[in-house]
Amino acid sequence: MNKFRLLTKRSIGFYTNLAIYGIAAISIAVAMIFSAVSSSDTGFAVPKLWLAILLSIFSIILLAGIILIQIFLPSSFGQKIEKKWWFDLSITLALMLIIAFLGICFYIMAHGKSSLMGAIWFSGLFTGNGPAEAALMGGTIGMVLYVFAGIMLGVGAFFKITQK
Predict the structure, then answer these.
(1) What SS3 string covers 15-67?
(2) For 68-115, where are the E strands, in sequence order?
(3) Confidence label for 4 from pLDDT (cuts 50, 70 and 90)
(4) Which DSSP state fits 4?
(5) Which of 4, 17, 145, 163 has the fewest Cβ atoms surrounding its Cβ within 10 A?
């Protein structure tokens, strides 16, 4: 079986999905790293960070599964599988689960960094404290990337993955 045959005769929606899901997976991985690094300093740890990391890993695994299903399953069965209602439903449910996981990760990070937000951004108590500002900025980048990945997955859900 030719390796390139799996990626030929696909619609533009397939390639768009592949790019969107790839960008989302990279964003989730980077958000997880920023979240973990921002919580590594003593005194700025996020409670339940292990859950955010676990959900991020589950999200990446589910996303990789969706990508592999979209590449290999339709080419094995032809266009018959793409016209089945359960095929679209299973991918949509997996995307909804990933977006829910990302929302939980965002909540964990926002809840864990809320005291730093109040102390640095709103009251100015820790202004000039380098470790506190670095922990807040790393956590904020992680939160923004979780939201970005969720939006990307929501946009990617509207593209169909049919063959030409």
Answers:
(1) HHHHHHHHHHHHHHHHHHHHHHHHCCCCCCCCCCHHHHHHHHHHHHHHHHHHH
(2) none
(3) low
(4) G
(5) 4
Contact 26, 149 (CB under 8 A): no
Residue whose structure tokens are 């599964």? 65
**What would the mean pLDDT of 71-99 be, rounded to a whole number?**
75
For tokens 């995307």, what's the residue? 95
- Residue 73: name the closest of 162, 137, 135, 140 by CA: 162
Q: Are 49 and 108 in contact (CB under 8 A)?
A: yes
Q: Domains of the chain: which residue ranges? A: 9-156
pLDDT in tens, 103-141: 999 999 999 999 888 888 888 888 888 888 889 999 999
Degrees, nearest 5: CA angle 29-20-12? 155
The fold for domain 9-156 equals Four Helix Bundle (Hemerythrin (Met), subunit A) (1.20.120)
Asked if residues 130 and 143 have their Cβ atoms less than 8 Å apart, the reply is no
| DSSP-assigned letter for residue 121 | I
Half-sphere exposure of 161 (CA within 13 A, CB side): 31
Contact residues for 59 (Cβ-Cβ < 8 A; gap 6+): 28, 98, 101, 102, 105, 149
Give the relative orientation of helices 12-38 and 130-156 as an angle to the nearest 10 degrees. Answer: 160
